[in-house]
Amino acid sequence: MRADILRDKFLVFFKTKKHKIITSDSLTPVDDPTVLFTPAGMNQFKKEFLGLGRPLKRAATSQRCLRTDDLDKVGKTPGHHTFFEMLGNFSFGDYFKEEAITWAWEFIIRVLKIEKNRIWISVYKDDDEAYSIWKRKINIPVSRIIKLGDKQNFWPSEVKLKGPNGPCGPCSELFFDLGSDVGCRRPDCSPACDCSRFVEVWNLVFTQFDRKDEGVLEPLPRKNIDTGMGLERLAAVMQGVYSNFQTDLFKPIVKEIKSGIKDSTLIKDELIYAIADHIRAIIFAIYDGVMPSNEERGYIVRKLIRRSLTHLSKLGIKRAFLYKLVPLVAQVMRRPYPQLKNQQEDIAAVILAEEESFLSIVKSAPDLAGLIYKDYKRRQEERQVGNMLFELYDTYGVPLSVSAVALEHHGVHIDKKDYSQFENLLESQKQRSKVASSMKGEVFNSGQLPIKTKKTCFDGYKHSECNAKVIAMSRSLRLARNCCISSLLKRIVLVFSSTS
Length: 500
Fold this sequence. Notes:
Elements: H1 3-16, E1 20-21, H2 46-49, E2 58-66, E3 83-92, H3 97-111, E4 119-124, H4 128-137, E5 145-148, E6 154-155, H5 159-162, E7 166-177, E8 198-211, E9 217-230, H6 231-238, H7 251-259, H8 269-287, H9 296-314, H10 326-332, H11 340-363, H12 365-378, H13 385-394, H14 400-409, H15 416-437, E10 468-476, E11 491-498
Parallel strand pairs: 1-2, 4-5
Antiparallel strand pairs: 2-3, 3-9, 4-7, 6-7, 7-8, 8-9, 10-11
Helix pairs in contact: 3-4, 7-8, 8-9, 8-11, 9-11, 10-11, 12-14, 13-14, 13-15
């Protein structure tokens, strides 16, 4: 079953359950400073979960998402991605556990017709209610229901111990069993095992608590449902393949990348899969107005482009190539994003310019290394070779192997200690990046500036100007959706108070 059909079936199913189908939000969420990119389906409903947003009781979406937390795993595992689509159904103070579980089972078994005995269930260890529903109403054998702890089956993970404060709750997951000949092959293997036998298909989050200081959980008067099912993983299950990269969402892209490799001995699937993943993230980030740069969102896009080019180089492709994949991705994604085709030439031009810039940097690596070496020597930091390697990598994007050769060309000897120093600096940077891209503060921050003002109303339909005074300002790197020029500029967000 093709991914486009799966997406449609999911949305149609929940429409019959009286859910309002909501269009995917941008990858650059509006008025949400807690994340760089939209990481999950629930993000656009934060106000609804708080009872402050649209008058919605039930909603369903196919949300485009972007995460970089597991970047090093992309391509190496069958199911990690930077860009992916998250199918989700949501309840805002309406239905709760019994309906969420019943409908999930109905969709998986009756609509998709997946074999019952290949589905395993996990529940939070203290959630007797969810356990009972799966056991008594759905009739899942207890041998296929496992109880897991705060890290695996509570959202956010380990929130009671680590925070943040705000709405949270236990969750229940549906897993697909690939079979006893996959993974560790132990007779007692279950979804608790981190081998690749069990594929997490759907996560049902039961938001029923409000986390306070000291890890105190208070019951919420208004309980919510937040579910997420990765379309790519579901497609792999329904198409009978082991890896997401073998589905119809990726096969044409993988095939096109392989066609550019002249030496078949250089073919490495994990590098090809990583490029196929990254190009989707790059294209949709630019589609949503994020230009490659050295700051925040733009830095992520630039990093993905340069990472892909480094992979291509290892495959023997040492020329601009990524931009050629844009029309193909637009074709694969034409059903959910028909407007992508209208922007494909502009997106390809942005990627080509970035590719040519990076390739030029790599070509000039010896000269850059020479300048950096002279600067360090002037400052009497000759032995900070790890720092030089990292500066070439982090500031200019020069791959480690290229930097090492370039520095040795200038007589700089590099030993294990220098590589270790580079790795330490890189790890520190990754941690900073994770902090920057993870949620900050409370889970459901309304996104408002902490400023007390009188109630205001929009009067722009009657008047084109009014008298006002600036009462506060906040620095922002927020990007205007689908606007290339604004994404290059730092903006100052001004808060005005009308004086008329």
